[in-house]
Design a protein that fits this description.
The protein is α/β, with parallel strands linked by helices and 552 residues long. It is built from 14 helices and 24 strands. The chain has two domains: 329 residues, Glycosidases (TIM Barrel); 130 residues, Trefoil (Acidic Fibroblast Growth Factor, subunit A).
Length: 552
């Protein structure tokens, strides 16, 4: 009796401080929202977990117990998994319903993996592949994690290239009718059961010589309708052309489906697609951001949801190109408050491109799937896990916070008059007035003043604007916040790397080549309606598990 009371009190508490939300999800303008009365925003912050390679088994289960992997994903602050699957897992009965995990691993002579499985997941080893897949989904649900099923490829294996026969409708392994049959099978498998499957990505990275807009409209529409017809609860997630980079054609011609409030579009964005090092980084970031907006980001402005279902970086932290990309990505992801899925949780694959126990350097877990590969990198990325705005997160006045994309930190108070970089949980909020004064949102008597190069900026009491500096956004990235120092030099906000204090320095890289790095001076003024006074919204949905995890 006592225990029941305790639990119900605790659940009541949870519901008061908005820790949980209810499924199914739907969309409201560009936002994904929950099933509560007013539809509160649910920000998808997922991690990709591949299960589409040769063995068609979720990776890593030879290294760690399923339960422990799910627990790690939850503890790292992700609220969902984009779980990939090969089409033939749903359409080839002799494969999915008959072949067991053990047989599949043996087929590729992965004997070490079999032994590892025996130790870590003995109860899954002799399940048919499709049952093993369902076990993974269920276990993630038990840990309060949502799942998006992503049809990644047809024939199991590493993806993708233009001529691999899996690229576009009409390719050897992408018969539209087989694809639709597979989508229906998978969607109905998780229909009518109280399930944590909240969405389906219809097809990963369409590509190759056969791709064309007319077939895209025809088949993607058929696929979307097919999924919705058997599972009307889930989000239908639609990718574009050219390896999931191009949705620009939606400007001219709408994608029409018979259902409402369940359609989401998706894109991918990786640093290795371009060189981020060849020229001025402000210029590159400005140009790439503009390109993303032109190819897909414009959808948000039209009130259509967009999900970055893959992005990722080398987690070793020493890949300069990826690190530059990441800073630019983080700025846009915070600014637009994107829903996203990081590539990947994988520490190592059973086998990838013929290499057994392939080490995945883009994985947040290490080769053993036991520890976080680089907690500095993860910490940075986790700064965009909480939503900044959206339905249900409204405060009366929207405000701007100063986000520092290359560290994932925000400008916070160090003392009454001084500022430093700190956690984005409780950032100072700002208003850039029409007179270009940066004043605090909540204590409007304070404004930001620049002194000399290398010196800290300070908050000054606003006295008819007399002591305030005037600020403007500079450089092609529009992320350098510039003013004039006391002695009349042009300066930009910067971070003193020794103590994280906010200072001003000469503006870096307004011109010039790739030899200079402006990133310490990048600040993005991000719109936020997050309350400073409420705990940060926590996005797992299963009350029971959330409750357990919070107590722990
Ligand atoms: C789900 O339930 C509805 C209503 O009972 C039924 O019409 C439908 O066929 C079921 N769908 C699946 C995929 O089982
Ligand atoms: C983690 O990444 C950072 C860069 O963000 C790098 O400086 C550091 O060396 C990396 N640490 C490890 C343990 O790989
Ligand atoms: C994996 O774990 C084993 C046993 O704990 C350890 O000996 C090994 O060094 C680890 N390997 C890597 C690459 O982390
Ligand atoms: C970049 O510019 C600097 C100074 O103008 C020059 O010394 C350097 O050689 C240039 N580097 C490249 C890669 O062009």
């Amino acid at each position: 009796m006592e225990r029941v009371l305790f639990i119900s009190t605790f659940l009541l508490l949870l519901s008061i401080i908005n820790f949980t939300f209810s499924l199914p999800l739907s969309t409201n303008s560009r936002w994904i929202v929950d099933d509560s009365n007013h539809g509160r925003r649910v920000k998808l912050t997922c991690i990709n977990w591949p299960s589409h390679l040769e063995t068609a088994v979720a990776e890593g289960l030879s290294k760690q117990p399923l339960d422990s992997i799910a627990d790690k994903i939850f503890s790292m602050g992700f609220n969902c998994v984009r779980l990939t699957w090969p089409l033939y897992l749903a359409t080839d009965e002799s494969f999915s319903g008959v072949m067991t995990v053990r047989q599949s691993l043996r087929k590729f002579r992965l004997f070490e993996a079999v032994s590892g499985f025996q130790v870590n997941n003995p109860s899954i080893l002799d399940l048919p592949l499709i049952k093993a897949f369902q076990e993974v989904v269920t276990c993630l649900g038990n840990h309060g994690l949502m799942v998006i099923l992503d049809n990644h490829i047809s024939q199991p294996g590493w993806c993708c290239n233009a001529n691999d026969g899996n690229g576009f409708f009409g390719d050897k392994h992408l018969n539209p009718q087989v694809w639709i049959k597979g989508l229906k099978k998978m969607a109905s498998m998780f229909a009518n059961v109280s399930s944590n499957v909240v969405g389906m990505s219809l097809r990963n990275e369409l590509r190759g010589p056969k791709q064309n807009i007319n077939d895209w409209y025809k088949y993607m529409r058929e696929g979307a309708e097919a999924v919705h017809s058997v599972n009307p609860d889930i989000l239908v997630i639609v990718s574009g052309l050219n390896y999931e980079t191009d949705l620009s054609f939606l400007r001219e011609r709408a994608f029409e489906v018979s259902f409402r409030r369940k359609l989401v579009f998706e894109i991918h964005w990786y640093g290795f697609w371009n060189s981020w090092e060849g020229e001025n980084l402000n210029k590159i970031c400005g140009r790439e951001t503009e390109n993303i907006m032109k190819m897909s980001g414009f959808l948000l402005e039209k009130g259509i949801p967009l999900f970055v279902s893959e992005f990722g970086v080398d987690q070793r932290g020493n890949n300069a190109n990826d690190n530059m990309f990441l800073s630019c990505f983080m700025a846009l992801a915070a600014d637009l408050d994107l829903d996203w899925a990081l590539w990947t949780v994988v520490g190592s694959y059973y086998v990838r491109e013929k290499t057994i126990e392939y080490d995945e350097t883009y994985g947040v877990l290490d080769w053993n799937w036991s520890s976080i590969r680089n907690s500095t990198m993860l910490q940075m990325i986790s700064s965009i896990q909480s939503p900044f705005r959206g339905p249900g997160l409204m405060e009366t006045h929207p405000k701007k916070i100063m986000f520092h994309p290359s560290t994932g930190l925000c400008v916070v108070r160090k003392s009454l008059f001084q500022l430093k970089l700190g956690s984005c949980d409780k950032p100072e909020s700002w208003r850039l007035t029409s007179h270009r004064v940066l004043s605090l949102r909540e204590e409007e008597i304070f404004c930001l003043k620049a002194y000399e190069k290398g010196k800290s900026v300070k908050l000054r009491v606003f006295f008819f604007g007399l002591y305030c500096s005037k600020w403007k956004l500079k450089s092609e990235s529009k992320m350098q916040i510039s003013s004039v120092s006391r002695s009349g030099n042009s300066v930009c906000l910067d971070v003193d790397s020794e103590n994280n204090n906010i200072v001003t320095n000469s503006c870096k890289c307004l011109k010039g080549n790739s030899s200079c790095d402006p990133r310490s001076q990048w600040f993005k003024l991000v719109t936020s309606t997050r309350s400073r006074f409420k705990p940060k919204p926590f996005l797992q949905f299963s009350p029971k598990k959330t409750f357990l995890s919070l107590i722990r």
